[in-house]
Amino acid sequence: MTTPGDALLCYCRPGFEPELAAELNERAAHAGHPGYARTERNSGFVEFLGADAGALSQALPFQSLIFARQKLTRIAELRDLDPKDRITPILRALETTLGNAHTFGELWVEHPDSDEAKPLAGLARAFGNALRPVLRKNGWLKQFDDSRRARLHVVFLAGDHVLLAVGEAGDSAPWPLGIPRLRMHADAPSRSALKLEEALMVLMTEKERERLFREGMRGADLGAAPGGWTWVMVRQGLKMISVDNGPLREHLLESGRVEHLREDGFHWQPRAPLDWMVCDMVEQPRRVAERMGTWFREGWCRHAIFNLKLPMKKRWDETRLCLSLFEEGAGKPLLVRARQLYHDREEITVFATPPSTAR
């Protein structure tokens, strides 16, 4: 089903609005949907206007976007709302835009993940509690949450300024604000473990995780110290070679599943092909992209997840270049997904695998 809308609404990491805007502008043009991106620095979201938003949403699947945490179809913008009655204008906008034959599976009342919008969190929670029963009474919302159906998003930009948007099941992030909430494990060697845990959730489907991680598989962690990514892979059932001149946390070695090689992870290569390679080294992104391509070209690994640390300027251009260098260097067809994760900072995370393994 194509949702009628007047804009594409995407959330992002505050400060990366120009990168997301550039990505949307370029991808929309390539898809034959002219328009323009509108945003403000540190707002935490970008709107793409001037095109058929529903058709554009279908042309730009969420999984293909790199700098977007969430992808929605905006159906209305409401300004100058009366604090005494925000619900009536919302019901009127839904009827005007969608008619009476649309029932949503869930309601999410949100705000952008920005310093300016975070004080709206309390209002969003309270308003959601007030709006939900009204929507159910009027037939706009299922009586019980159904994640298989489209979601209605009410996005507060201010107390009197709201965006209404629709998130399609299977083509949007299944977490409020597009942020998977992860807790730091007590025995994780470093907070970097959260990046890889999020990557497994965001860049792979549940079926792919079940198929691509099996007990006894072998992998390598390049630039491993102190061992956060090694720890995550061991928890997936792998036996790991952790390559770094620095020390690992002692309990990793006690597991019996980790071999620590005190070598330069950037130049090391395995003696036999591995199932997995992961890498979170602090290196120039182009060098990392080329080295990752070499790993696939030489057949040293079958699947990989790695980070690319981006420069301060022209980050979208650098992203495109690095992914192109990687795919050219690999010299073989690969399925490649990339995303700036919530736990990433000035970087993106890339998952690569043979296309036959991801279904």
Automatic annotation (TrEMBL):
It is an enzyme of class 2 (transferase). Residues 190-283 form the Ribosomal RNA methyltransferase FtsJ domain. Keywords: Cytoplasm, Methyltransferase, rRNA processing, S-adenosyl-L-methionine, Transferase. Residues 7-72 form the RlmM ferredoxin-like domain. It catalyses: cytidine(2498) in 23S rRNA + S-adenosyl-L-methionine = 2'-O-methylcytidine(2498) in 23S rRNA + S-adenosyl-L-homocysteine + H(+). GO terms for molecular function: S-adenosylmethionine-dependent methyltransferase activity. InterPro entries: RlmM_FDX, RlmM_THUMP-like, RNA_MeTrfase_FtsJ_dom, rRNA_MeTrfase_M, SAM-dependent_MTases_sf. Pfam families: FtsJ (PF01728), RlmM_FDX (PF18125), RLMM_N (PF21239). GO terms for biological process: methylation; rRNA processing. The active site is at K309. It is found in: Cytoplasm. It comes from the Bacteria. Belongs to the class I-like SAM-binding methyltransferase superfamily. RNA methyltransferase RlmE family. RlmM subfamily. Catalyzes the 2'-O-methylation at nucleotide C2498 in 23S rRNA. Monomer. This is Ribosomal RNA large subunit methyltransferase M. It comes from Lysobacter soli. The lineage of its organism: Bacteria, Pseudomonadati, Pseudomonadota, Gammaproteobacteria, Lysobacterales. The gene is rlmM.
